[in-house]
Amino acid sequence: MHQLKTDLVVTSPGRINLIGEHTDYNDGFVLPAAIDKVIILKLGKNGTTNECRIQSEGFGEVVHIDLGNIAKSNNDWENYILGVLHELILLTDKLRGFDCSIESHLPIGSGVSSSAALECGLAFGLNELFGLGLTKWDIIQLSQRAEHNYVGTKCGIMDQFASVMGKDEQVMLLDCKTLAFEYIPVNIEPYRILMLNTNVKHNLAFGEYNVRREQCQQGLTIVGNKFQIGGTFRNVTMQMLDDCKKEMEDVIYNRCSYVVQENQRVLEAVAALRANKMETFGELLYQTHKGLSEQFEVSCPELDFLVDFSKNWEEVLGARMMGGGFGGCTLNIVHKEAIASFVKEAGKVYKEKFSLELSAFQTVPSKGTSILKRNG
Ligand code: GLA
Q1: In a designed cystine with 36, which of 135, 294, 358, 366 is the match (CB 3.0 to 4.6 A)?
Q2: Is the pLDDT of residue 354 over 90?
Q3: pLDDT score recorded for residue 246
């Protein structure tokens, strides 16, 4: 272990999303929250102009980065860091050499967005350390660009937004078109948010995400040629899609109709949450899963199996796959008294079917990226 310098400790959370999947890059609505599972970053100025030393638990040796010579790496996790440094250098000349050690308590590849937690935590910490004067929105958007430009996923804004803006016991309704948002208290007693991690991440995930984005864009172009929609998916209706159906391939129609319907579901889910109509809320989650599985086609057998299994339990109000898809977690709304037996049974049948371990964790909406401690 090298002795790295620590001036401040940053905590940066993963996120869940109650509803509104694959809507963020379509100018739609999402309902995410930061969670109580985090990445911890210890950061310190090391007195050099350009030399950065990064240590990540689990990756062993220290990685050296020269701020004067930032380029993409073949190593995925390094690209999250390099991408953030690249974006920061474009915005400021105040960055100097630093040490950073990273400790993750987030299951990687499980769809709770360890990547956004890392990007935002690093950007947030360096902003504090060097007084860069960036706002929270600067941090959110530069982290998203880092992912586009260095990692190659053309992600939306949801994950970075949720990680930075989270608040205890609140979910956030974000309008991804205007970036207006509001906090909504989550009082779902006697229910809990339970995540079931399939522990699979199918290879498809990476490229297919960008393919979905392009397909939505294609549909938007076709609708835009016929109707005045101001270039935004937000103005697309089911009627318009039906009127354009002959001009688009079925697959494009399916992707686009999912997005239009999912936006509507987010608004209905928010109304249900506010009125404490938890059965309605749960039903909407099941509808979302069906849409993601059949129309958007980003689910996988493991996720479908868990969602179907949950339907046998009256103590489970709703369940769906969460995040980009092709693996990761299902999100379940479960009565607190049934959690232990539900987890046990789900684990048993899942193992019988797929010869894989299922992992489960409960989570609650929690605060966003913040300083845990300052030295000196
Ligand atoms: C990933 C992306 C997000 C969002 C979700 C799907 O997590 O990073 O921007 O598109 O998938 O809702």
Answers
A1: 366
A2: yes
A3: 97
- Cα separation, 263 vs 254, in Å, equals 14
Could you tell me if the CB of 22 is within 6 A of ligand 1? Answer: yes
Q: How many CB atoms lie within 10 A of CB 178?
A: 9
Identify which of 367, 173, 358 has the alpha carbon closest to the alpha carbon of residue 272: 173
- What span, in angstroms and rounded, lies between the C-alpha atoms of 261 and 266? 9
Q: What is the mean pLDDT of the chain?
A: 96
Rounded to a whole number, what is the distance in angstroms from the first to the last CA of the chain? 23
Answer yes or no: are the C-beta atoms of 174 and 276 closer than 8 Å.
no
The residue whose two tokens read 């490229």 is 207
Torsion of CA 339, 34, 103, 323, to 10 degrees: 70
pLDDT band at 33 (very low <50, low <70, confident <90, very high): very high
Number of helical (H) and strand (E) elements in the chain, helices listed first = 10, 14
Among the listed ranges 17-31, 200-214, 297-311, which one has the minimum average pLDDT value? Answer: 200-214
Active-site position among 24, 27, 99, 159: 159
156 lines ligand 1 (CB under 6 A): yes
The number of residues making up the chain comes to 376
Domain architecture of the chain: domains with CATH: 8-186+366-374 (3.30.230.10)
pTM above the 0.85 mark? yes
